[in-house]
Each structure stands twice: as structure tokens, then as C-alpha cells.
Amino acid sequence: MPTLDKTATIADLFSDITPDGFVERYWNQRWYLGAPRPEVIESLTGGGPSLATWSEGFRRAYSWRDAKPRLFGLLGARQVVPITPSQADPILAAGRTVIGAILDRGVTRLATLLKSELGIPGAVETSASISAPGEAASPHYDGPHIFVFQVAGKKQWNLSRERLIHNPKLGRNLNPDGTIDLSDASENDVEDPGVRVGECDSVVLEPGSWLYVPAGTVHSTVALDKSLSFMVDVKPTRFDQVVDRAFRHAHGGAGSELPPLAGAGPEWSRQILTAAAKWAEELSPTHPAVESAWNDLCADLGALQTSFWENRA
Prior knowledge:
By secondary structure, the chain is of the alpha+beta class.
């Protein structure tokens, strides 16, 4: 593997465009395939996960006391089940995929640099996917923006040329006819239930290459051989989330358990609407509650995940 004679920056990931050009032309608009830069990714992560060490990051994230365990096995078309780290190897041996949150010092560093050097808002998470050869993920779209870095093996990505949903609240699977699966109606952010995926393109990620997938872009994957990739997920900062968090900061703090308005009785509804009207009169971008809400949703990844490395149980 070639080596760099300097410490890499995010700009070194791009071969045909500047970071500012990427944000202007591709961010939240269309997918972008980065040319293989294994030496750059090596420098940015200090190594990162490998086929020999991939399970360590999963175990750290799963057992971190401040995190919600998130590890899943993809057992077939649209069959995703929560698993424990001990179940990962049997699922891979059965020819399937394991995906979930990871805690890895090098991936954390890369995610922090992406966020700061590209100037992108939104809370950030890190995850990884390891797949046996064959179908890895059926057609779906995700709520976050995703940067995918291929570590080992080759994986084919099939991607819609256009985003199916703009600024989605959550990810959803697609039905066989290309329409969105709306069977989970707990939170409906789909304005046109009949919208259907259009033309798709296929790209192959090789070790050292990377891919940006905007939120709402339909994609599916096929592992051409045993494949390992890690992802940096950037959750879009939504106006409704800022308002909700700002209101909670202004009335009891971010951690207060305010009941949802839809389930509130008449007296509580009157109180909360009166408080909201009074608060709206003094609302401004510099209001402490608004600043606190924005900081919640755009939290510095380095500060968040460094707490794991400094306070491991």
C-alpha cells in the first residue's frame, strides 16, 4: 500500500473536486463515488477496523453503558432482527450480513474530521457492516446521510439517481413494485404514498474506495465476496426537532419528561399552548434555548465519543 508523506486531510479523499465543491454539488442532492484512497483512509483513521478486528468495535458499542445497543442481523429480504455480539459469527457463517453501531477510535477521528472540515450540520454516528458473499441489503432508503468506506472485499451498490424522499424523518423499505412500504405508520413523513423509485445505477466499492449516499436515496447492496465496510451517518437537522428541543430546554431542560401534546388532557394542553405562545414572542436565533437545542442536534462527535475512551467501565 502506498504511503503519504504528510498527515492526510479530508481534501485528500477527493480526486476530481474540492471539499467545498462536493458540498455545493452533491451534499443532500445526489450520490458521489470517491476514487480509491486506501493510503488516505489509513492516515485518517490510523488503521480502523479490519477483517481480523471488526467484532471489537461492535462489542464496544453494544456494551457502552451510555449507548442504546444497536446490532442487527440481515437474515433475508427485509428480515432484520436485533442480535447480540455472540450471534454475529453464526449469522455470517449462514451467508448473511451483520450491521450495527461501532466504537472505534480511528473511525471516530475520521467522522470528526468529516464533520468539521466539510462544515456539515447534524448529529453523527458510526457503524459498520460485514457481509458474506451474496445479497446484503434489500432496496430501502435511510434517514441519515451516509459516508461508506470499503475496508475489505468488494460490494456492489445499486442506487437511485434521484432521492425518493427529501429530508426523511426515518428510513423505510421498498415494496417489490418500487413503492414505499408504509406498513409502519407510527410516523408518516411520505407526502405521496404512490411515489415510486426511478432509474438506478450500480457501482462497485473496492478496498479503499468510498461512497456518499444522501438521505432518502434508495439503495440495495450485494457482497461480491466477504465484505467489510464502516459508515459515518449524519442525521439531518430538522426544523421540527429544533423547535421541540428548544421548547423542552426553555421549560424544564432537555431531559424533562414532557407528555406528548396529542395525549394531553385539556388543562395540560391549555398550559403548554399558553407557554408556547409566550415563548414564541421572545424566540430568536440567539435565545439560550435555541442555542442549546442546536447544540444537541449538532453535537461535536469528538466530545461525545471521547467520553467512552476516557471513562471506560
